[in-house]
Amino acid sequence: MATTLQANLRTDLTGSSTRQIRKDGHVPAILYGNKIDSQPVYVESVEFLKTVREVGKNGLFSLNVDGSKHQVMIHDMQIDPLKNEYLHVDFFEVDMKSEIDADVPVRLTGESPGSTEGGVVTHLLYDISVKCLPNDIPEEIELDISELNIGDSIQITDLRDKVSVEITNEDEETVVTVQPPTVIEESEDADESGDAEPEVIGEDDSNKEE
């Protein structure tokens, strides 16, 4: 495991200290696992971003906490939607010999024939839940939609033989579908009102004067 992220223990857990950590360019975090006690830590924000980009959402890496190394993965991240900054991170120490649950992103590939005919490709399930050993977690699941026509769909049951790990979603869950194009029909009332001739006001009075 080549990727290593440096972390430092947090001893002051007050709100003012946490704000100062962020102000200094660090991200407050927590390290926990089934065989260790929870440890409040913090990491350098730029190095953390580099690690995320390098290993991916479900990647494994080494977290070095004051000289003690832990094999971890990112369990959760809190991000400020306005500033697009990391607010807090959960690092989970994994047991390399025990299966764990993880959510794997789905990436659609190819072009659906149905979409060229006016159909709408609707991606319904962006993540698929799997259970496997930490080293076997796929970075993403590619889904080829190049044979999907209008009305076709791909469900979880269609993927079980194509993915090397156990999928824990229900069989009937739909991952992607190609919906028919939406046709807006004019109502008959609208057609009838559009064909009606306008009424001429005052026509009868002019005839009477004559």
UniProtKB/TrEMBL annotation:
Q: List, alphabetically, the Pfam families matched.
A: Ribosomal_L25p, Ribosomal_TL5_C
| Stretches assigned to the Large ribosomal subunit protein bL25 L25 domain | 5-91
Sorted keywords for this record are: Ribonucleoprotein, Ribosomal protein, RNA-binding, rRNA-binding
Task: Note whether Protease occurs among the keywords.
Answer: no
The annotated regions of Low complexity compositional bias extend over 175-184
- Residue ranges constituting the Large ribosomal subunit protein bL25 beta domain according to the UniProt record: 100-181
Q: Which cellular component appears as one GO term in the record?
A: ribosome
In which domain of life is the source organism classified? Bacteria
The answer to whether the entry has keyword ATP-binding is no
Assembly with partners or alone: Part of the 50S ribosomal subunit; part of the 5S rRNA/L5/L18/L25 subcomplex. Contacts the 5S rRNA. Binds to the 5S rRNA independently of L5 and L18.
Kindly give the HAMAP family that the UniProt entry links to this protein. Answer: Ribosomal_bL25_CTC (MF_01334)
Protein known as: Large ribosomal subunit protein bL25
Species for this entry = Alkalihalophilus lindianensis
Q: Which gene encodes it?
A: rplY
